[in-house]
Predict the 3D structure of the following.
Amino acid sequence: MEALKIPATDLTPEVCFDPETDVLKISGKSLPEDARSFFQPLQDWLSMYAATHTGEINLSLNLTYFNSSSAKQIIKILYLLEDLTEKGYETKVTWMHKKPDTMMQDRGEELATLVTVPFIFEVV
Amino acid sequence: MTPIQSLYKDVEPDSLTLWYKGIFEDRLTEDIIELTESGSADPDSKKSGKKIPFLMAESFQNIIRHGLKDDGSTAIEGTFGISNRNGMFHIYSSNLIPNDEAGKIESKLQLVNNLGPEELKAYYQEVLSVGALSSKGGAGLGLIEMARKSGRPLQFQFSPKGNLTEFVLQIDHARTDRETDLSIMPIQQSISFSAKLSALGVRMFFKGDFKTDAANSMLSMLAENVNLGDDESGLNKKIYHSGVELLQNISRHGGTPDGKAMGMFILSASGNYVTIATQNFSNEAGSAKLEKHLQEINAKSPSELNIWYRKKLKQSALDDSNSAGVGLIDVGRLTLNPMNFATENVNGMVLCTIIIRIKIGE
């Protein structure tokens, strides 16, 4: 399976999904108006990755900003992880934020209350 | 009608209006030029080719070269405005300069305004070859180029402001060279609109077509305007997020029968509040739906809004549409209650205004 690597733009985050190292990371800001088009390939890739992967799935989210359309797509990814947990996978989300970025910390804590996937908070 | 709502009347004939008041940086120049190119609702505006971006860049250079802050420090503050009124572009700049600069700049302006096209060309070559650089790094070439490219006299005004002088310059340029009979807006009219914006604390004002490219340039300008660096209070991000959601609300829902998404976006800071106002056109049904949604948001307490937002966001993941439908609820969570909403009938369409406020100090 090939890695999914997308460089950041003014409106979309950097994506590094690497099946060799099992690093699954989304970083930067996400505010495209059509967030669905951007995130759909990520959701498809994760489903395919899970189909052949054994062991823990750890998604790292290091977002500095996301708009409401992106929030919907992030929840979709979290639901996908939740489904995988129900199928017996061990999953977790590492939510990264800068220390003074209280809004991103709050947003991470809020997302964590909406799903059963465990969140680990890391100050970067 | 609130003062912000009434600004629409001042720019009603414009297919594009853009004003910025604040610090001038290179990135901003790029954003504003991009926005002007993408955001105009006038299909013929591109006929001016590179002349408008060139004149805008010269106008920015003029602010950066001569601008001073009130207290004489080095961060360059000024005002920039551009409008396309019935095919005539008006490029406006205003900045503070030392008193002793005023006389020198004024004589150069008078000189270039008195020269015809051929004389300007000869004068340009003469200055270029002599290379008589002024102490501010300009050789007067900028003003000569502005006059050559605009093909019209440069409008200007100098007025005392404290112990400095305010230098206002307006370049007028028709979108095509063939259009010689278009009326030119007097500089006084621009000065009075600029003063109105200043009185309201307006930092960014945009009226135009909010199709995707224009909205993206606005987002970039907004990010520049709101310092998103170390932001312990989270205030700047609240302002930014509210701006993003309201801007995308216009490009998503705003519509006119000609297929454009004409709208206005105004960011202002006054006293202890930042205000963001947006205006867009809708039909009766769309406007009634928006009003009901905002009334529901305004009727809820902060904790009720949190519950509603989370419930709706979770539900949204179950459908395939692009929008989460939680943007305005989220803005309601971050801003002061109520979010104001007003409508006005304009040419058979409903002009919807949303005004939100964020408290930034005690």
The two ends of chain B are 27 Å apart (CA to CA). The beta strands of chain B are 14-23, 77-85, 88-97, 155-161, 164-174, 202-209, 262-270, 273-282, 340-346, 349-359.
